[in-house]
Amino acid sequence: MNKLWKKIDAKSFVQENVILIVLIVICIFFSVASDKFMTSNNIFLVMRQVSVLGVVSLGAAVITLAGGLDISLGNQMTLYALICSYLMVNKGMNMWIAIIAALAVSLIGGMVIGLTINTFKINPFVATLAFSTVLSGISFGITGGYQISHFSDEFKFISQGFVGSVPMPVILMLVILMVGAFVLNKTYIGKFIYSVGGNEEASRLSGIGVNRIKIGAYIAGGFLSGIASVMMASRLNSVSTTCGDGYTFDAMTAIMLGGVSVRGGKGKTSGILIGILIIGVLNNGLTLIGVQSFVQSIIKGLIMLAAICSDSLIYRKRS
Questions:
Q1: Residue 142 CB neighbour total at 10 angstroms
Q2: Where are the beta strands (DSSP E) in 85-206?
Q3: How far from chain centre, in Å, is Cα 103?
Q4: 275-300: buried (b, 16+ CB within 10 Å) or exposed (e) per residue?
Q5: What is the pLDDT of residues 170-201, one digit of tens each?
Q6: What is the pLDDT of residues 95-140, one digit of tens each?
Q7: Strands 162-163 and 148-149
Q8: Are the CB atoms for 84 and 187 separated by under 8 Å?
Q9: How far is CA 123 from CA 117, 120, 200, 264, in A?
Q10: Separation CA 7–CA 217 (nearest Å)
Q11: Alpha carbon distance 308, 198 (integer Å)
């Protein structure tokens, strides 16, 4: 009987922590493949690299948990980073005022996207694809295609500074993820988000303002992409019309790896963090062992496809 319980517990543990086990296996593989991987400098480098992705991934997760989808987050990041940089460098505006202005625009951007999708009942994929093109055009109009750089040391500290031996962007990411976890797990807003994403019609019948929750999710996603854009600009010390490219794909891959269902209503912040780390470790480890960039893209694409297939199989099994 004891042996039987041990087998059941072991099986349950593996099922509940499969993503964590995958992360550990990947880390072991790269530790063997490269002696540079498991060093303190490289570990901190990975954490700094995933900090921006972590913040925007939380935004993507909130939208997806509420039953939505936003593939324009990378384009939003580009626009908000350009607005902040343009105000600081080209207009000589105070850093904090420029950041606040960019974050205010991010709130408006998220609200416009959320209102458009939920007022006209448009497919979110199609709508945010259209918004991606609009945002890209606005970004090009701001800069004319030129880079904006030469930021102040104070601004660069946001993503290049340290508090003791801990990188500042890592602290920001962890704080934001903890706040996100608290809101999603310990507040009525979080419960409503899960409820709407899990069963929209049942939520409506129980008196939940479904449209308000969905629009609020897009506003939160826009705001988090705004924070991520400021961190990205600070880390790069230069922004252009392509600086946010790739973030949408990596964010969606990370949250799906972390267990967030594309159908909404399912997923944990802890899983999102593990998904983010898997993406960061893969990017870093594959580069260290000399894998070419196009092969890395193929691998990440296959990982995302596997995550989608896994989500589909789980959904069908539960149905």
A1: 17
A2: 148-149, 162-163, 166-167
A3: 17
A4: bbbbbbbbbbbbeeeeeeeeeeeeeb
A5: 999 999 999 999 999 999 999 999 999 999 99
A6: 999 999 999 999 999 999 999 999 999 999 999 999 999 999 999 9
A7: unpaired
A8: no
A9: 7, 9, 15, 15
A10: 41
A11: 17
